[in-house]
Specification:
Two copies of one chain form a homodimer. With 295 residues, chain A is α/β, with parallel strands linked by helices. Chain A is built from nine helices and twelve strands. Chain A has two domains: 4-109 and 278-294, Nucleotidyltransferase, domain 5, CATH 3.30.420; 121-273, Nucleotidyltransferase, domain 5 (2-Layer Sandwich), CATH 3.30.420.40. In chain A, 33% of the residues lie in helices and 22% in strands.
Chain lengths: 295, 295
C-alpha cells in the first residue's frame, strides 16, 4: 500500500496527514496558521520526518488559489484578505523543499472530492460542497473531478438580497461588504452580534438571518449548477439544527419551480452534512494526492 | 455532406432549419408559437417535406426541459409559466411523427454550443451563454459539451439584491417575483415602465436598473462557474450600448477580488455579444443534431 500526504491549508490551522485512505492513516499533525514562512516550514518538516517514502502530496488550500498550470503564479494563494498570505507561493515553497509530486486545489474542492470518493456522494456525478465557516466557499465535483473553470468557484462572493431595514449590518467582507460571505460567515455572525456564533442560543434571531442568507445562496447555486447533492460543511454548520431550517427555506424560495423530489420530500437527502465531518478537508487533500498521481 | 435539422423552440416563435453548417443552409422556416398541437404539427410538416434524407434533428427549447434520459418525462417542457405549454412532450411528439434520431437541449445550451462550434468561442473550454429576452436563461458549455447537472441551469431564477426603495417594482416572475428574470427580462422592463424596452430611449432610467441587475447576475455566475467567456444574447441585449455599461458595473462589483485581465483591460473580450447574432439558437440546434449523432 503506497503512502500519500495530505494538507488542508486553512486560515486558522494547517492539518497534515500521512496515509493511504481514511482507514489507513499513519500520522497526523495540526499546525497553527501564523506567517507563511513559519507555517509552511512546519508542514515541510512533518513530511520530511516521515519514515516511509511518500508517493505524492495533495494540498487543499483556502483561496483564491491560482490553479491554472500555465500561469507563472500556479499554486499561489493570491488576493486573500488574510494578513501576510497575499501572493504566497504555497505549492512552490513545499515543492522546492520536498522532491516529490505535489498537487494543489481549493479546500472546498478537495472536501467535495473526499465526500465523492469516501463519503456519502460516491455514486453521484454532480456534487456541490459548501463550507460556511471562517469564509464561505464552494467546491464542485463533476464525474469525480474537481471543477475549476477559468479560476475556480468563489461562491462566497456572490451577491444576495439583503434587506437593510430588517438587518442593517453592512457586512463583513473586506472586498464586497454584504456579499454572501460578508453576511453569513462565522466572522460575519460574530461581528454582527458581538458574540461568536457558537455562544449564541438556538432561538437567537441570528439564526433566522443565517438561515435566510445560506438558503438564498444555495438557491442561486441550484439555479446555476443544478447539483445532485449539496454537502454543507464548515464551523457554522456544525450547528446541526440549522439544516432543517435551511432545507425548509430553500424549498420556500424555490416556490415549486423545481418539481423534482429533491425539492420536496427528498430534500433531507439533498442538503446534507459531510459524512466525513471535519475530516473531509484533510482526507480530500489525500484523495487529491492519489487521484492526480494516477491521472 | 449530410443534412441535419435544427429547431429553436421559443416562446414567441419556432425557427426551423435544414442544412449542415452556417455556410450550407438548405431551407428555413419560422413558425409562430401558438398551442403545442398546432406549432409542433407545423414543425413536423417542415421536416417531412424535406427533399433529402435528414440524418438527425436537434431541438433547442425554452424550459424548463427534462433532459434526464432515464426520466419518463425526458424531452418534455415541464413547469413553464407559458400558457398551454406545461408538461408538453416536445421530443416525443416530433419523434413519433418523424422516424429519425432527435435530440433535445435547452435553447441557451444550444446557442452556447453554436458559439463554441462556429462562433467566437471556438478555442475555449468554459463558455457561458446568457440570454436576456422574453426570459433570462443560461447555457454552459464545458469542453464543447452542454452542461446539465441534475436538471439544467435555470440562472434566470437566482435571487439578486433588489433595493425596493430605489426600485419598488415587485418583479414580473410568476414564480418568484423579483428574481433576476423577474427584474431584468424584456417583459419585466415592459411591465415596470409600461413601455416595451425597444421604445425606451437610451437615457431612460430603465437602463440603469437593467445594467445593475444584469451585472449582478453575471457576477454571481462568475463567482460560481468562473467561465472563460460570457456571451450575452437575447432581445434586450440587441441594445448594444448596454455592453459597456454592464462591463463597467461587473468590474465595479468585483472590487478587485478577481485580479485577472478579464476583469480589467480585457473585459471587452470577456463579456461579448454572440458572434452568430440572433442565429445562435437555431444554428446551435443544428450543431446539437450533428454532435449528438456523432457521439
Amino acid at each position: 500500500m503506497r503512502t500519500f500526504g495530505g494538507v488542508e491549508a486553512g486560515g486558522t490551522k494547517f492539518s497534515c496527514v500521512l496515509g493511504s485512505d481514511p482507514d489507513h492513516i499513519l500520522s497526523e499533525r495540526t499546525i497553527r496558521t501564523t506567517t507563511p514562512e513559519k507555517t509552511l516550514a512546519q508542514v515541510i518538516e512533518f513530511f520530511a520526518e516521515a519514515s516511509e517514502p511518500i508517493s505524492s502530496i495533495g494540498i487543499g488550500s483556502f483561496g483564491p488559489v491560482e490553479l491554472n498550470q500555465s500561469s507563472r503564479f500556479y499554486g499561489y494563494i493570491t488576493t486573500t484578505p488574510k494578513p501576510h498570505w497575499q501572493n504566497t507561493d504555497v505549492l512552490g515553497t513545499i515543492s522546492r523543499a520536498l522532491k516529490m509530486p505535489i498537487f494543489i486545489d481549493t479546500d472546498t474542492n478537495v472536501a467535495g472530492l473526499a465526500e465523492t470518493k469516501w463519503g456519502s456522494a460516491q455514486s453521484l456525478n454532480f456534487v456541490l460542497y459548501v463550507t460556511v465557516g471562517t469564509g464561505i466557499g464552494g467546491g464542485y465535483i463533476i464525474d469525480g473531478k474537481p471543477y475549476h473553470g477559468m479560476l475556480h468557484p468563489e461562491i462566497g462572493h456572490m451577491r444576495i438580497p439583503h434587506d437593510k431595514k430588517q438587518d442593517p449590518f453592512p457586512g463583513a467582507c473586506s472586498f464586497h461588504g454584504d456579499c454572501l460571505e460578508g453576511l453569513a460567515s462565522g466572522p460575519a455572525i460574530h461581528k454582527r452580534w458581538g458574540i461568536p456564533g457558537e455562544n449564541l442560543s438556538l432561538n437567537h434571531p441570528a439564526w433566522i438571518f443565517e438561515t435566510d442568507y445560506v438558503a438564498m445562496g444555495l438557491v442561486n447555486l441550484i439555479c446555476t449548477l443544478s447539483p445532485q447533492r449539496i454537502i454543507l460543511g464548515g464551523g457554522v454548520m456544525r450547528r446541526i439544527e440549522l439544516f432543517d431550517q435551511i432545507r425548509t427555506k430553500v424549498r420556500d424560495l424555490a416556490k415549486g419551480y423545481f418539481d423534482q423530489p429533491q425539492f420536496q420530500d427528498k430534500i433531507s437527502e439533498y442538503i446534507v452534512p459531510p459524512m466525513l465531518g471535519t475530516r473531509a478537508g484533510v482526507l480530500g487533500a489525500l484523495a487529491l494526492a492519489k487521484d492526480r498521481l494516477a491521472s
